[in-house]
Amino acid sequence: MTENTLPLRRFKVLDLTRARAGPTAVRQLADWGAECLKIEGPSESDGRSVTAGERDGFDFQNLHRNKRSMTLNLKSDEGRKIFLKLVETADVVIENYRPGVKTRLGVDYEACKAVNPRIVYGSISGFGQTGPYMDRPGVDQIAQGMGGLMSVTGLPGQGPVRVGIPIADLTCGMYLAIGVLTALLEREVSGEGQWVHTSLLEAQIAMLDFQASRWTMAGEIPPQAGNNHPTSVPTGVFKTADGHINIAASGGTMVERLSTVLAAPEFLSDPRFNSNKARAENRDAMNAAIESYTAKRNSADLIEALNAGGVPCGPIYNVKQTFEDEQVRHLAMVAPAPHPDLGDLPIIRHATNLERTPFVMRAAAPAQGDATAETLAALGYDAAAQAALRKEGVI
Protein backbone atom coordinates (compact mmCIF):
# COMPACT_ATOMS: atom_id res chain seq x y z
CA MET A 1 0.00 0.00 0.00
CA THR A 2 1.44 3.36 -1.07
CA GLU A 3 0.42 6.86 -0.04
CA ASN A 4 -1.24 7.48 -3.41
CA THR A 5 -3.49 4.42 -3.12
CA LEU A 6 -4.90 5.13 0.34
CA PRO A 7 -8.72 5.20 0.26
CA LEU A 8 -9.23 8.92 1.07
CA ARG A 9 -6.27 10.21 -0.94
CA ARG A 10 -8.49 12.06 -3.44
CA PHE A 11 -9.91 14.37 -0.78
CA LYS A 12 -8.36 17.69 0.27
CA VAL A 13 -9.11 18.83 3.82
CA LEU A 14 -8.48 22.28 5.30
CA ASP A 15 -7.99 21.94 9.06
CA LEU A 16 -8.89 25.01 11.14
CA THR A 17 -9.11 23.05 14.38
CA ARG A 18 -7.41 23.29 17.75
CA ALA A 19 -7.75 21.69 21.20
CA ARG A 20 -8.81 18.01 20.85
CA ALA A 21 -12.26 17.32 19.42
CA GLY A 22 -11.62 19.04 16.10
CA PRO A 23 -8.15 17.56 15.54
CA THR A 24 -9.58 14.14 16.39
CA ALA A 25 -12.10 14.51 13.54
CA VAL A 26 -9.40 15.52 11.08
CA ARG A 27 -7.15 12.69 12.24
CA GLN A 28 -9.73 10.11 11.14
CA LEU A 29 -9.48 11.48 7.59
CA ALA A 30 -5.73 12.06 7.61
CA ASP A 31 -5.06 8.53 8.80
CA TRP A 32 -6.76 7.09 5.72
CA GLY A 33 -4.89 9.27 3.27
CA ALA A 34 -6.81 12.54 2.94
CA GLU A 35 -4.53 15.46 2.11
CA CYS A 36 -4.94 17.49 5.31
CA LEU A 37 -3.52 21.00 5.57
CA LYS A 38 -3.46 22.36 9.13
CA ILE A 39 -3.98 26.14 9.08
CA GLU A 40 -2.21 27.90 11.97
CA GLY A 41 -1.79 31.55 12.86
CA PRO A 42 1.76 32.83 12.19
CA SER A 43 2.30 33.63 15.86
CA GLU A 44 0.19 30.82 17.25
CA SER A 45 1.94 28.95 20.04
CA ASP A 46 1.96 25.17 20.39
CA GLY A 47 -0.11 25.47 23.55
CA ARG A 48 -3.05 26.99 21.64
CA SER A 49 -3.05 24.18 19.11
CA VAL A 50 -3.47 21.41 21.63
CA THR A 51 -4.59 21.09 25.20
CA ALA A 52 -1.19 20.25 26.68
CA GLY A 53 2.41 19.70 25.76
CA GLU A 54 4.95 20.95 23.29
CA ARG A 55 4.78 20.47 19.56
CA ASP A 56 7.18 17.53 19.71
CA GLY A 57 5.43 16.07 22.77
CA PHE A 58 3.23 12.99 22.92
CA ASP A 59 -0.09 14.86 22.79
CA PHE A 60 0.50 17.06 19.75
CA GLN A 61 2.22 14.27 17.83
CA ASN A 62 -0.61 11.85 18.52
CA LEU A 63 -3.29 14.32 17.40
CA HIS A 64 -1.70 15.79 14.30
CA ARG A 65 0.15 12.97 12.56
CA ASN A 66 -0.28 12.53 8.80
CA LYS A 67 -0.92 16.26 8.20
CA ARG A 68 0.98 19.22 6.78
CA SER A 69 0.96 22.77 8.15
CA MET A 70 0.48 26.24 6.72
CA THR A 71 0.67 29.51 8.61
CA LEU A 72 -2.04 32.01 7.73
CA ASN A 73 -3.51 35.00 9.54
CA LEU A 74 -7.25 34.69 8.96
CA LYS A 75 -7.85 38.02 10.69
CA SER A 76 -6.20 39.81 7.77
CA ASP A 77 -7.98 40.49 4.48
CA GLU A 78 -5.19 38.88 2.48
CA GLY A 79 -5.13 35.84 4.77
CA ARG A 80 -8.87 35.34 4.35
CA LYS A 81 -8.49 35.79 0.58
CA ILE A 82 -5.80 33.09 0.46
CA PHE A 83 -7.90 30.76 2.56
CA LEU A 84 -10.89 31.11 0.24
CA LYS A 85 -8.61 30.40 -2.72
CA LEU A 86 -7.69 27.15 -1.01
CA VAL A 87 -11.39 26.40 -0.46
CA GLU A 88 -11.99 26.60 -4.22
CA THR A 89 -10.19 23.29 -4.76
CA ALA A 90 -10.79 21.69 -1.36
CA ASP A 91 -13.34 19.02 -0.50
CA VAL A 92 -13.65 19.54 3.26
CA VAL A 93 -13.19 22.33 5.81
CA ILE A 94 -13.26 21.40 9.51
CA GLU A 95 -13.34 23.94 12.35
CA ASN A 96 -14.16 24.06 16.04
CA TYR A 97 -14.44 27.77 16.80
CA ARG A 98 -17.26 29.06 18.93
CA PRO A 99 -20.25 29.43 16.57
CA GLY A 100 -19.93 33.18 15.99
CA VAL A 101 -16.17 33.31 15.46
CA LYS A 102 -16.06 31.74 12.00
CA THR A 103 -18.69 34.21 10.78
CA ARG A 104 -16.73 37.18 12.13
CA LEU A 105 -13.61 35.86 10.40
CA GLY A 106 -15.52 35.41 7.14
CA VAL A 107 -14.66 31.72 6.83
CA ASP A 108 -18.06 30.25 7.75
CA TYR A 109 -19.98 27.73 5.64
CA GLU A 110 -21.82 30.36 3.57
CA ALA A 111 -18.55 32.11 2.70
CA CYS A 112 -16.94 28.81 1.70
CA LYS A 113 -20.03 27.63 -0.20
CA ALA A 114 -20.01 30.85 -2.23
CA VAL A 115 -16.63 29.93 -3.75
CA ASN A 116 -17.17 26.14 -3.81
CA PRO A 117 -20.73 24.75 -3.68
CA ARG A 118 -19.31 21.22 -3.36
CA ILE A 119 -17.53 21.97 -0.07
CA VAL A 120 -18.36 19.78 2.92
CA TYR A 121 -17.99 22.03 5.96
CA GLY A 122 -17.61 20.33 9.35
CA SER A 123 -18.12 22.17 12.65
CA ILE A 124 -17.71 21.24 16.30
CA SER A 125 -18.86 23.42 19.19
CA GLY A 126 -19.42 22.94 22.89
CA PHE A 127 -23.22 23.00 22.90
CA GLY A 128 -24.50 23.36 19.34
CA GLN A 129 -24.59 25.95 16.56
CA THR A 130 -27.89 27.39 17.82
CA GLY A 131 -29.74 27.64 21.12
CA PRO A 132 -29.34 29.47 24.44
CA TYR A 133 -25.88 28.02 25.17
CA MET A 134 -24.40 28.34 21.67
CA ASP A 135 -21.85 30.99 22.64
CA ARG A 136 -20.68 29.35 25.86
CA PRO A 137 -17.13 27.98 25.94
CA GLY A 138 -17.24 24.21 26.06
CA VAL A 139 -14.61 21.65 27.05
CA ASP A 140 -14.69 17.90 27.63
CA GLN A 141 -15.30 17.84 31.39
CA ILE A 142 -18.14 20.34 31.16
CA ALA A 143 -19.82 18.10 28.57
CA GLN A 144 -19.24 15.01 30.72
CA GLY A 145 -21.09 16.74 33.55
CA MET A 146 -23.95 18.21 31.54
CA GLY A 147 -24.29 15.09 29.42
CA GLY A 148 -25.01 12.89 32.45
CA LEU A 149 -21.87 10.77 32.28
CA MET A 150 -20.36 11.91 35.59
CA SER A 151 -23.57 10.97 37.42
CA VAL A 152 -23.27 7.30 36.39
CA THR A 153 -19.49 7.00 36.80
CA GLY A 154 -17.85 6.03 40.09
CA LEU A 155 -18.84 4.10 43.20
CA PRO A 156 -22.38 4.40 44.58
CA GLY A 157 -22.61 7.49 46.77
CA GLN A 158 -19.13 8.68 45.80
CA GLY A 159 -20.32 11.83 44.08
CA PRO A 160 -19.69 12.76 40.43
CA VAL A 161 -16.62 11.25 38.76
CA ARG A 162 -15.14 12.13 35.37
CA VAL A 163 -14.07 9.41 32.97
CA GLY A 164 -10.30 9.05 32.76
CA ILE A 165 -10.10 9.98 29.07
CA PRO A 166 -11.54 13.02 27.22
CA ILE A 167 -14.43 10.92 26.00
CA ALA A 168 -16.68 13.80 24.91
CA ASP A 169 -13.87 15.32 22.83
CA LEU A 170 -12.89 12.02 21.24
CA THR A 171 -16.37 10.78 20.43
CA CYS A 172 -17.44 14.21 19.17
CA GLY A 173 -14.50 14.16 16.77
CA MET A 174 -15.41 10.69 15.56
CA TYR A 175 -19.08 11.57 15.12
CA LEU A 176 -18.09 14.58 13.02
CA ALA A 177 -15.75 12.46 10.90
CA ILE A 178 -18.59 10.00 10.26
CA GLY A 179 -20.82 12.92 9.30
CA VAL A 180 -18.23 14.35 6.92
CA LEU A 181 -17.73 10.99 5.23
CA THR A 182 -21.51 10.59 4.95
CA ALA A 183 -21.78 14.03 3.34
CA LEU A 184 -19.01 13.16 0.89
CA LEU A 185 -20.93 10.02 -0.11
CA GLU A 186 -24.15 12.04 -0.47
CA ARG A 187 -22.29 14.58 -2.64
CA GLU A 188 -21.59 11.81 -5.15
CA VAL A 189 -25.37 11.67 -5.75
CA SER A 190 -26.42 15.32 -5.36
CA GLY A 191 -23.26 17.04 -6.56
CA GLU A 192 -23.54 19.49 -3.66
CA GLY A 193 -21.71 19.89 -0.38
CA GLN A 194 -23.35 20.75 2.93
CA TRP A 195 -22.74 21.89 6.49
CA VAL A 196 -22.13 19.05 8.95
CA HIS A 197 -22.04 19.88 12.65
CA THR A 198 -22.14 18.32 16.09
CA SER A 199 -21.17 19.34 19.61
CA LEU A 200 -19.53 17.97 22.71
CA LEU A 201 -22.92 17.90 24.44
CA GLU A 202 -24.67 16.04 21.62
CA ALA A 203 -21.87 13.50 21.37
CA GLN A 204 -21.83 12.89 25.11
CA ILE A 205 -25.57 12.36 25.29
CA ALA A 206 -25.43 9.96 22.34
CA MET A 207 -22.65 8.04 24.10
CA LEU A 208 -24.89 7.46 27.12
CA ASP A 209 -26.58 4.89 24.90
CA PHE A 210 -28.76 2.51 26.98
CA GLN A 211 -28.23 4.62 30.10
CA ALA A 212 -30.06 7.43 28.28
CA SER A 213 -32.85 5.19 27.04
CA ARG A 214 -33.36 3.96 30.61
CA TRP A 215 -34.65 7.47 31.24
CA THR A 216 -36.34 8.31 27.91
CA MET A 217 -38.20 5.00 27.65
CA ALA A 218 -38.37 3.52 31.16
CA GLY A 219 -38.34 6.68 33.27
CA GLU A 220 -35.36 5.45 35.32
CA ILE A 221 -32.57 7.78 36.47
CA PRO A 222 -29.46 5.57 36.29
CA PRO A 223 -27.41 5.60 39.50
CA GLN A 224 -23.69 5.09 39.98
CA ALA A 225 -22.85 1.40 39.81
CA GLY A 226 -19.10 1.48 40.38
CA ASN A 227 -17.35 -1.51 38.84
CA ASN A 228 -20.61 -3.40 38.46
CA HIS A 229 -22.39 -3.41 35.13
CA PRO A 230 -25.43 -1.13 35.51
CA THR A 231 -27.96 -3.80 34.50
CA SER A 232 -26.20 -7.16 33.96
CA VAL A 233 -25.54 -9.40 36.98
CA PRO A 234 -22.99 -10.73 37.74
CA THR A 235 -20.61 -8.53 35.79
CA GLY A 236 -17.90 -6.60 37.58
CA VAL A 237 -14.55 -6.63 39.36
CA PHE A 238 -13.73 -9.52 41.68
CA LYS A 239 -10.88 -9.98 44.15
CA THR A 240 -8.33 -12.71 43.59
CA ALA A 241 -5.46 -13.97 45.74
CA ASP A 242 -3.07 -11.56 44.01
CA GLY A 243 -5.28 -8.68 42.78
CA HIS A 244 -8.51 -8.29 40.84
CA ILE A 245 -10.02 -9.46 37.57
CA ASN A 246 -13.11 -8.67 35.51
CA ILE A 247 -15.79 -11.33 35.11
CA ALA A 248 -18.88 -10.94 32.89
CA ALA A 249 -21.22 -13.86 33.55
CA SER A 250 -24.70 -12.37 33.27
CA GLY A 251 -27.53 -14.61 32.04
CA GLY A 252 -28.44 -18.17 32.89
CA THR A 253 -25.99 -19.91 30.55
CA MET A 254 -23.02 -17.88 31.72
CA VAL A 255 -23.91 -18.43 35.38
CA GLU A 256 -24.05 -22.15 34.70
CA ARG A 257 -20.58 -22.02 33.18
CA LEU A 258 -19.27 -19.93 36.08
CA SER A 259 -20.76 -22.41 38.54
CA THR A 260 -18.99 -25.27 36.78
CA VAL A 261 -15.58 -23.57 36.58
CA LEU A 262 -15.65 -22.49 40.23
CA ALA A 263 -17.30 -25.72 41.43
CA ALA A 264 -20.03 -23.62 43.03
CA PRO A 265 -23.37 -25.49 42.62
CA GLU A 266 -25.17 -23.04 44.93
CA PHE A 267 -25.07 -20.43 42.13
CA LEU A 268 -27.77 -22.56 40.49
CA SER A 269 -29.67 -23.85 43.52
CA ASP A 270 -29.77 -20.83 45.84
CA PRO A 271 -33.08 -19.00 45.22
CA ARG A 272 -31.21 -15.68 45.52
CA PHE A 273 -29.13 -16.53 42.45
CA ASN A 274 -31.14 -18.90 40.24
CA SER A 275 -32.81 -16.32 37.96
CA ASN A 276 -31.90 -13.02 36.34
CA LYS A 277 -34.44 -11.21 38.51
CA ALA A 278 -33.16 -12.81 41.70
CA ARG A 279 -29.54 -12.03 40.87
CA ALA A 280 -30.40 -8.40 40.13
CA GLU A 281 -32.17 -8.10 43.48
CA ASN A 282 -29.28 -9.76 45.33
CA ARG A 283 -26.29 -8.38 43.44
CA ASP A 284 -24.14 -7.77 46.54
CA ALA A 285 -24.75 -11.27 47.87
CA MET A 286 -24.03 -12.79 44.45
CA ASN A 287 -20.77 -10.84 44.16
CA ALA A 288 -19.73 -11.88 47.67
CA ALA A 289 -20.46 -15.52 46.87
CA ILE A 290 -18.30 -15.34 43.74
CA GLU A 291 -15.45 -13.66 45.63
CA SER A 292 -15.50 -16.43 48.24
CA TYR A 293 -14.13 -18.61 45.44
CA THR A 294 -12.04 -16.17 43.39
CA ALA A 295 -10.18 -14.76 46.40
CA LYS A 296 -8.55 -18.16 46.94
CA ARG A 297 -7.01 -18.37 43.45
CA ASN A 298 -4.51 -16.21 41.63
CA SER A 299 -5.57 -14.04 38.68
CA ALA A 300 -3.72 -15.88 35.92
CA ASP A 301 -5.09 -19.25 36.99
CA LEU A 302 -8.65 -17.93 37.14
CA ILE A 303 -8.42 -16.20 33.77
CA GLU A 304 -7.14 -19.35 32.12
CA ALA A 305 -9.83 -21.52 33.73
CA LEU A 306 -12.70 -19.12 33.04
CA ASN A 307 -11.72 -18.60 29.42
CA ALA A 308 -11.44 -22.35 28.95
CA GLY A 309 -14.93 -22.66 30.41
CA GLY A 310 -16.38 -20.01 28.07
CA VAL A 311 -16.85 -17.30 30.70
CA PRO A 312 -15.80 -13.78 29.56
CA CYS A 313 -13.09 -12.47 31.87
CA GLY A 314 -9.81 -10.62 31.82
CA PRO A 315 -7.05 -8.90 33.75
CA ILE A 316 -7.12 -5.26 34.85
CA TYR A 317 -3.97 -3.61 33.54
CA ASN A 318 -2.19 -0.32 33.94
CA VAL A 319 -1.21 1.23 30.60
CA LYS A 320 2.29 -0.27 30.67
CA GLN A 321 0.85 -3.75 31.19
CA THR A 322 -1.64 -3.18 28.38
CA PHE A 323 1.14 -2.66 25.87
CA GLU A 324 3.08 -5.65 27.23
CA ASP A 325 0.17 -8.05 26.68
CA GLU A 326 0.81 -10.64 23.97
CA GLN A 327 -2.47 -9.97 22.17
CA VAL A 328 -1.84 -6.21 22.13
CA ARG A 329 1.65 -6.84 20.74
CA HIS A 330 0.12 -9.12 18.11
CA LEU A 331 -2.34 -6.40 17.09
CA ALA A 332 0.58 -3.96 16.57
CA MET A 333 -1.30 -0.98 17.95
CA VAL A 334 1.87 1.14 17.94
CA ALA A 335 3.09 2.32 14.54
CA PRO A 336 6.28 4.31 13.79
CA ALA A 337 5.60 7.88 12.65
CA PRO A 338 8.61 9.25 10.74
CA HIS A 339 9.80 12.61 12.08
CA PRO A 340 12.55 14.51 10.23
CA ASP A 341 14.43 15.41 13.42
CA LEU A 342 13.31 12.91 16.06
CA GLY A 343 13.28 9.73 13.98
CA ASP A 344 10.43 7.23 14.20
CA LEU A 345 7.96 8.16 16.95
CA PRO A 346 5.83 5.38 18.51
CA ILE A 347 2.26 6.56 17.88
CA ILE A 348 -1.03 4.69 18.39
CA ARG A 349 -2.37 3.59 15.02
CA HIS A 350 -5.94 3.90 13.78
CA ALA A 351 -8.06 1.17 15.36
CA THR A 352 -9.94 0.18 12.19
CA ASN A 353 -8.54 -2.58 9.96
CA LEU A 354 -9.21 -2.68 6.22
CA GLU A 355 -7.90 -5.98 4.88
CA ARG A 356 -7.28 -4.77 1.34
CA THR A 357 -6.17 -1.22 2.18
CA PRO A 358 -4.15 -1.33 5.41
CA PHE A 359 -3.40 1.70 7.54
CA VAL A 360 -0.17 3.58 6.79
CA MET A 361 1.47 5.96 9.28
CA ARG A 362 2.86 8.38 6.73
CA ALA A 363 4.35 11.10 8.88
CA ALA A 364 4.65 12.57 12.35
CA ALA A 365 2.93 15.87 13.14
CA PRO A 366 4.26 18.65 10.90
CA ALA A 367 6.58 21.46 11.78
CA GLN A 368 4.67 24.72 11.91
CA GLY A 369 4.31 26.09 8.39
CA ASP A 370 6.16 23.26 6.66
CA ALA A 371 3.86 23.52 3.64
CA THR A 372 3.33 27.29 3.53
CA ALA A 373 5.75 28.09 0.73
CA GLU A 374 4.69 25.12 -1.40
CA THR A 375 0.99 25.87 -0.97
CA LEU A 376 1.35 29.55 -1.82
CA ALA A 377 3.49 28.75 -4.86
CA ALA A 378 0.70 26.50 -6.14
CA LEU A 379 -1.67 29.47 -5.81
CA GLY A 380 0.67 31.67 -7.87
CA TYR A 381 2.55 33.55 -5.15
CA ASP A 382 6.21 33.82 -6.11
CA ALA A 383 9.10 34.31 -3.68
CA ALA A 384 8.74 38.10 -3.66
CA ALA A 385 4.99 37.91 -3.00
CA GLN A 386 5.56 35.44 -0.19
CA ALA A 387 8.21 37.69 1.35
CA ALA A 388 5.73 40.56 1.30
CA LEU A 389 3.07 38.41 2.97
CA ARG A 390 5.55 37.41 5.66
CA LYS A 391 6.52 41.02 6.27
CA GLU A 392 2.86 41.96 6.65
CA GLY A 393 2.24 39.14 9.14
CA VAL A 394 -0.15 37.29 6.84
CA ILE A 395 1.98 34.13 6.97
Describe the structure.
The protein is an alpha/beta fold. It folds into two domains: 3-207 and 332-391, Crotonobetainyl-coa:carnitine coa-transferase, domain 1 (Rossmann fold, 3-Layer(aba) Sandwich), CATH 3.40.50.10540; 235-316, formyl-coa transferase, domain 3 (2-Layer Sandwich), CATH 3.30.1540. Helices cover 43% and strands 14% of the residues. The protein contains 20 helices and eleven strands. The chain has helices spanning 21-31, 46-49, 58-64, 77-88, 99-105, 109-115, 140-146, 149-152, 167-190, 200-208, 210-216, 252-262, 266-269, 276-281, 283-294, 299-308, 319-324, 326-331, 372-378, 383-391, and strands at 12-15, 35-40, 68-71, 92-95, 120-125, 195-199, 235-240, 243-248, 313-315, 334-339, 343-348. It has a six-stranded parallel sheet, sandwiched between helices. The model has no long low-confidence stretch (mean pLDDT 95).
In short:
By secondary structure, the chain is an alpha/beta fold. The chain contains 20 helices and 11 strands. It starts with 11 loop residues before the first strand and ends with a helix.
Q: Quick one: overall form?
A: elongated
What characterizes the major β-sheet?
6 strands, parallel
CATH superfamily of the largest domain: Crotonobetainyl-coa:carnitine coa-transferase, domain 1
The strand order across the widest sheet is 3-2-1-4-5-6
Mean pLDDT: 95
Give the name of the CATH architecture of the largest domain. Answer: 3-Layer(aba) Sandwich
What is the number of helical segments per DSSP (H or I, 4+ residues)? 20
Low-confidence stretches: none
